[in-house]
Amino acid sequence: MNHSQQSAVDRPRVRGTDRSLARRAELIAIGRKLFADTSYDALSMDDIARQARVAKGLIYYYFKSKRGYYLAIVEDSVADLVSRAAGGLELPPVERVHRTIDGYLRYAEHNQAAYRTIITGGVGFDTEVQAIREGVREVIVQTIAEGAYGRRKIAPLPRMALLGWLCSVEGATLDWIGHQELPRDTMRELLVKMLGGAMRAVEELDPSYLAPGPARRDA
Description:
With 219 residues, this protein is mainly alpha-helical.
């Protein structure tokens, strides 16, 4: 996620004491649980304060508004998603790709409301959440590129292929968490094979980007 995307949400300044930072982090953790399966519009600030067992003024003190609180929760969720998806740098490239997709699905499965917010853009057409989503996409595309091609910076053609694949992953994952008709392992292998198809198409158009061996064997 680049600097401009990370700065998309103008978060209120918090007091720099360890206690204040810990309290803010605690409120975000509480908010993540509250919004885990509940939409933004379904919870009022009074609801949030009551369920979190804190004074409403404390939330306003740290986040200024319900929207500020919600966006802080989204950013925290995004950091978690990126961390899960982009880990495993010590693994061989093909295993890293599998781990990235599995981490992505695990996050979506266990954080459904947050995932829907990140992917669909949040509250209405929310440009700030849209910017966060674009940052997530870029990180995941770079992670897959590194696992598949050994480098994060790739040419426009393979980047577009990976981005197109990721957009299809987002749609498929939204349907998957809504219906849960496939086991996660099956879903992961389906997405891996779809990725292999995208990579074979890239190789046909630009032979300098060879599809990894497993992708060619699946042809």
